[in-house]
Write a structure and sequence with these properties.
The protein has one domain. About 80% of the residues lie in helices and about 5% in strands. It has three helices and two strands; from the N terminus they run E-H-H-E-H. The protein has a two-stranded antiparallel ribbon. The radius of gyration is 18 Å and the shape is elongated. It starts with a strand and ends with a helix. The relative contact order is 0.19.
């Protein structure tokens, strides 16, 4: 659903998403460190999955950053016109991408917990 949102709300959403993604990357590093100490094939396979997930996070961060740069360009062009009164199309495609990310990340954490429980 595309709706128009105030410009500052879109920026706030961007900041929250980027922080969430940075935290997820830190979690993956912790999991990877743990798995690096486990010398078996299953741990290696899980590390590869985490690596692919980290790459997907990097790509999502780039998409978010690109959208934010476009909004910043627009803000510079609108300088002095009151950005709080400007309403822009919302981040619907990026919001969907974040929802998919959250689902995938939760699956990865569940997989890790199951692996850890078996060890």
């Amino acid at each position: 659903m595309n709706t128009a949102l105030p410009f500052p709300s879109l920026h706030q959403e961007y900041l929250l998403w980027m922080n969430e993604l940075r935290f997820a990357v830190q979690e993956l590093r912790i999991f990877d460190t743990y798995l690096g100490r486990v010398p078996n094939e299953a741990a290696g396979a899980l590390r590869k999955q985490f690596s692919r997930h980290a790459t997907a996070i990097d790509r999502l961060q780039l998409r978010l950053h690109g959208a934010e740069l476009e909004r910043a360009r627009f803000a510079r062009e609108m300088s002095g016109m009151g950005l709080y009164s400007v309403r822009m199309e919302d981040n619907a495609p990026l919001r969907e991408a974040m929802l998919r990310f959250r689902d995938r990340h939760n699956e990865m954490k569940t997989t890790f917990r199951r692996f850890e429980a078996k060890k």
